[in-house]
Every structure is written in C-alpha cells, then in structure tokens.
Specification:
By secondary structure, the protein is of the alpha+beta class.
Amino acid sequence: MKEIRMQSKDRAVSFRLIEESGEFIVFDMSLSGPARDRTSYSGTSFEAAWKAVEAIIGVTAIPDEFKPYATAL
C-alpha cells in the first residue's frame, strides 16, 4: 500500500493506493464529521479519486509517486 497525507488550511486528506487490487481510497481526515462519513472515494479510477482529494483540500499538484497512475489526466 502507498499512502500520502496532504493538508490545506484546516482540511486534511489521506490518499491511498492498494497496489494488489489497483484500488484508490480517499479518506477525509478533517474532524468536520463522523468517521463513518469520511471515506470520500473508493474505487479503481485515479481521476475520480483525485477529484475527491481536490474536493476536500482544493486544487493541488499530484505527488511524484502517484504520477504514473495519472496518465489520463
């Protein structure tokens, strides 16, 4: 599993890749809501996962370790 945590002002997000299954998981780490509602995306589309990241922390550059998965962007 690869994981990176990103923060912008008072919002934080965990972006994970489960390499064996090709699944991306976006988890809102901000304390703004119940834990059960914090998974913003879980699936195999990098584009959809990154949109979920940007919905939480705003527009941000894709980290180098995840750029190989972002070829469609």
